């Protein structure tokens, strides 16, 4: 009998990874990588699938994906245009003032109507914005207790426009009408991008003759069918970090561990306990937007394999190892750029570095710039003038400045941020090429770049690269410790972890002053490393922390495997308002009131109210699981009852019933 296999795909910032897994035996049959394509990642997905065995692909019955499309769309501000309607006494977000209105309505903390909904104002605003937007978002005061006003507004908007409408209560069950409004707005802006991306994947699998169940990993570590993701794409922000911690647990066989995922752009730290990712109590924040999306807890630093290594000094003569920076900007590594542009080797070899040259982030001894493939639009006259001086092939910015009358370097940063200018430079990937730990492209280019920087520091390229490896590992260790205990500041942790800074303050050495460290942080659970170059840093990381450090087999494609390790999950939270009365003996519970899609429910006995809320929640979860082809017997539940007490002499003012259902993502 032919096996049913599963395929995981992670479209990351640099690479798109794919892994074919037999989930029954937990065996990874094969995996591969391809460069991620921008702005449409489907090109990278197609490329990596071309590298896999077609016979294996024909046996795939489950496909699960993680991607950065939602995060990138928000960061780049290129989602669909949306109008936001806030119902009740709410503040218009400053950056949405042109696409937002506040109308009267909303409910109070008991779920009772606070003010009558101003439907006329909604109708007037919708007709005004109809030609300017492609979707609407609605958030009402206390809609999590009573969504009636949001639902009425949604119905009216759809009658008037036929456009998609997203309600705050559909995405979040926590207090905070403002954040729910932001969440609904972002979700609406992602709807067409999500549909295009997911439709492209479905077309790709169909063209390859694959008949698969398609799911996507959400940022809380759960998976959802594509049909659900198309309705709630905002829940997929940070799906990559969720994939890394799930992949770390799956590949290492550790139900409880910390994952450090080193990608091309960033390093992410997260944790899983008893197979459940640790979830942040705060909503996910992306691009400065605070949302109500439940996401895994993580610490991220803008330092990855493609991070720019540069001197944070005013001039070449001020360059010291202490002012070398790694990141935060992502650039094309020298080793890869030389293969992309064959003439680059000669450009680098003919470059002369003046010792009195002034420096900034882009004027560096090993940094080049060139035009990207994006078309310049909406540029100021100064930006356009600067853009026209940049060539189609890589050049050192200092050389261009010599040839031109004037290049305003602050304009370069604007053009880079707008993705109109691409930067090439020395990176940690180059450093690993020099040390021989990781060789994927042209080693000679990496060696040449490292030698330029080493000569300016009056050291060898070997010493420079070893010290940069240690600097990279110390940053990994710092983020790990900060994730575990943020009572230390990052500055304090840097001072502790830096070997040179420790000699007098933090460490003891033997009588020969060998520099051997006797003081390290201890982590009591395994630390699992995920990402293409991570095995290269085990020794340096172990010098900083005392822990079981693991780079499991297939660590390079851990995120692709992690896509398949996510469970189907649904969380239902019901907030029961407790109404009390006072008599001669004190306060007593009078009634218990809450709202569901079936309307308002009132009980006189607390246990009856809790039982109904639990039963309703489980039935809602069963319905969801059935839609995902899961049988009731395969669903596991976790229930929490939380009482909110404002005065110990009085009954609780609210009882929260939280029910979570889990099931394996089966074929």
From TrEMBL:
Gene Ontology molecular function: any one: 5-oxoprolinase (ATP-hydrolyzing) activity
Protein name: Hydantoinase/oxoprolinase family protein
Organism: Methanolapillus millepedarum
Signal peptide from the UniProt entry: none
GO biological process: glutathione metabolic process
Record-level GO cellular component terms: cytosol
Hydantoinase A/oxoprolinase domain boundaries: 180-312
Record-linked Pfam families: Hydant_A_N, Hydantoinase_A
Boundaries of every Hydantoinase/oxoprolinase N-terminal domain copy: 7-159
SUPFAM superfamilies: Actin-like ATPase domain
